[in-house]
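Appendix B, record 7
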Amino acid sequence: FTGSHWSQSDSIDKKSKPIDDPEAIDQRPIYETTLEPGTVLVSTDEIAHWDAEVAEHLPKCEVSTKAEDKAVYGVYGGHDRDGDIMVLAVGSGVVLVCDEGGPIGVGDFLCTANKKGYAKRYDGNDMRVVLGKARQSFTGNKGSIACSYMCG
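Structure tokens (predicted):
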């Protein structure tokens, strides 16, 4: 199970791809982006707004750019058919990681890294910066691992 919520962004790219099938029930476009699933996101000070009454207390988001950011919000889980961003924040999934904090072991805490959109091993004790817990080891430069998200 993964808990997710919606967000919007002024800085995350998206391009709509029209539906080619005239028989399709849902004619809303599919959105494409250059972001990889598992890209680390942080919240901004701006609140997202929807036309319908959908939780206007959710902040907008952007790709993380600094280490140990308390604004850690979750990871990129895709765009929905309305173009909104699905932020994965509780449960299990993947996260992009780098070697900035050293090798990652199973059970290590993860936080935002200085590499844009990546997480690193976190050895501190401030749980406000923790994105999740590693479920796989990692020793490379950059990659993707299984993670239990804890930042909802």
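Remarks on this record: The chain is about 0% helix and 45% strand. The CA atoms of residues 26 and 124 lie 47 Å apart.
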